[in-house]
Every structure is written in structure tokens, then in C-alpha cells.
Amino acid sequence: MTGAGGEGVPGLEAAPMYAAMVCAGAAAWLMAGREDGTKRARLLLAGVGRACDTRPQLPPACSRLLDAVRERLGCREDRAWWCLAAGAVLGLLGESWLPLVAGAAAVPVARRMLLRRGRRSAAERRASAVVELCAAVAGELHAGRQPDRALLAAGALPLRELGEGGAAVLAAARFGGDVPEALREAARSPGAEGLSGVAACWQVAVESGAGLAKGLDAVALALRAERDQRAELQALLAGPRSTALVLALLPAFGLLLGAAMGADPMRVLLHSPAGLACLAVGGLLEWAGLAWVARLVRTAEGPGKAEKGGTA
């Protein structure tokens, strides 16, 4: 649609970029999930009644379909495919195949990062489960239970976080097996290293009759102190990580600002030799900056983590 002078409608040239912003916002909304605020409100208004649930009521079939879609989109590993979708959208808007290729290349990298984050979260859950196990079993021992009965009574729930290793420990306690050996096997899982101390205390208590409850209390105290130290370190590193993320996103905001001003930076970057050169140099500098910050954070977390982070 043109005016009398043949000029286009003002702002029409920037419409594709606005559409890209809407798509990016929708993708971030789906990836982050919109249930956080709803869950928080439900917790705060628990017991008030049905009035706290302000969501529209949907038919059961639609609700099941939406739950399946949310569950599929919420899988940590599958979120890496959003890179390909974003690359396809940018490729269509920029009329170039380079964003699609970049998005496809970013899928394995993003998948690797998400898997690493998932393993780290699982290790943290196992570490918390070990602390809970020590405290619960020690409480049962103080109440007068035998070690095997105490482990079966108080350790079933914490040991579920340890997977097959926890199931082997419960089976050994229930059927008279070698509990210390099962604990040492379960301690090989990342985050469950504290079970080696539990196994040592259990072995000493069985052989010499020493008090197992006091040993478990000491192990739980040491593991809590280590967990609190890690949490404090993560809180201190949250600032540098947030700063690095903001700085990494600044080029994207610059592109959006240029598009809003009518400069059409996507066409310059994707359809001119100088733009392609700037895009390549900028991408390399972006990657180098992120790698450098990640290396600094891993070094601050500890020498062992730095080596694991470099090889993971």
C-alpha cells in the first residue's frame, strides 16, 4: 500500500523486526514457563478456595493437550531446538541462510550446556539427600532403633534421589546385605560422595560397636558446612554471571534499536562483505568473552571444577 507520492506506509519497513521481537518474546515465555507466578500465588493463597485460581477453565481434552505440550517444551534437553527455530525465523526475516546454519550449529552446543546444567542440578539434589539421610537416620538411632531398621524407616525417601544406588542400599539393609559396600557404590554418583563417610561410620560401628549416631551427626554437620559454603560461593558468583549475560545480549539490543530506527542492520550484516566480516569478528569476540568469563567462574569455584568444566 503506497501513498500519493509512492512512499510506503511509515513504520512498515520495521514490521519484520517487530515480528521477530514478538516471536523471541513468545519463545522466552514458553521456555521459562508461565506457571511460576501462578504457583507462587497458589502457595500464598493456599486454603482460600477456588477464587485464587484465576485461569480460564478449559475442556479436559484441551487441558490434557496443553499439559502434554508444556511437558514436552519443558524438557531440558529439548530446549536446545529453540536455537534452530530462532535461526529459521531470523533467516526468513533477513532473507539469508546464515542464521539457519548458525542456529543448527548452536543446537549441540546448547544441548551440551543444558545437559551439564541438568547434571549439576541432579548432583545438588543428591548432596541434599545425603545430608537429609544422615540427619534422619541419626535421629532414628537416638530414638533406640537398630541401624538397619533406622535406615529402612528414615532413609527411604532421601535414598530415592540416589536412583539405583539408593535402591541397592535399601535392599542391603532390608535383606541383610553388605550395607557399607552398597553405600560406597552409591557414593560414586556425582553429589553423593558424602555416602563414603556414612559407609566408614557404618563399618566402624559394625566391627567395633562404636556409636553410629554420633558419627552420622558429625558427617551431617560437615556436609551441611560444605553445602553452605558452596551456596555462598554461588551467591557471590551470581553478580559476575549476570553482568556477563547482559553484556552478551547487548549486540542483540543494538540490532533491535537499529531496526527500530530504520537502519535495517540485518540486511547490512547478512548481504554485504563488510557486514559479513563484522558479523564474523563480532561472533568470535562474543564467544571469546563468554569462554573467558566461564573459565574465570570455574576457576573461582575450585581447581577440580575448572578441570571438569574444561573437559565436560
From TrEMBL:
Organism listed in the record: Streptomyces ovatisporus
Keyword Transmembrane tagged: yes
Highest taxon of the lineage: Bacteria
Official protein name in the record: Type II secretion system F family protein
Entries under InterPro entries matching the protein: T2SS_GspF_dom
Localization: Cell membrane
Principal cellular location given in the protein's record: membrane
This protein's UniProt keywords: Cell membrane, Membrane, Transmembrane, Transmembrane helix
Residue spans crossing the bilayer: 15-32, 244-262, 274-294
Membrane topology note: Multi-pass membrane protein
Ranges where the Type II secretion system protein GspF domain occurs: 134-256
